[in-house]
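From the methods appendix. Each design record in this collection lists the tokenized structure first, followed by the designed amino acid sequence. Records were kept in a plain field format so they could be parsed without special tools. The example shown here is representative of the layout used throughout.

RECORD:
FOLD TOKENS (133 positions):
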């Protein structure tokens, strides 16, 4: 098996997390009272219960690198997540970022920010993921 890192993200309610991410292709692969795993192709997100999380105060984030960022963004937008600058859930459009790659941003209902980054083989991951829009 290949070494890999998987984000561990908070969920106030597993049922709502499953429903939200399921709208754009994430499928339930594991669940018990203390852990939830959702997968979309090779992308895997793991969630732990955090019922008292205040989404507006969350600083959780992760990067989701995909081959077709425009298609993922379209799926998320088609699921009803709207483009806006505050609140959750919300989207920020895909555009060329200051570090040179195309990326958009999703903030889920629990306030977690996902950087939706287009895979580009010649650009290794860098320090660009250290700020929140």
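DESIGN:
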């Amino acid at each position: 098996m290949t070494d890999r890192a998987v984000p561990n993200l908070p969920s106030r309610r597993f049922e709502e997390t499953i429903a939200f991410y399921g709208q754009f292709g994430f499928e339930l692969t594991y669940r018990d009272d203390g852990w939830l795993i959702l997968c979309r192709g090779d992308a895997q997100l793991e969630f732990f219960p955090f019922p008292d999380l205040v989404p507006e105060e969350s600083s959780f984030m992760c990067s989701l690198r995909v081959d077709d960022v425009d298609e993922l963004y379209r799926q998320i937008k088609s699921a009803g997540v709207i483009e806006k600058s505050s609140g959750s859930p919300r989207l920020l459009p895909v555009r060329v970022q200051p570090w040179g790659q195309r990326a958009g941003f999703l903030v889920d209902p629990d306030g977690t920010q996902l950087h939706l980054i287009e895979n580009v083989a010649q650009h290794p991951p860098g320090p660009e993921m250290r700020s929140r829009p």
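APPENDIX NOTE: The mean pLDDT is 91.
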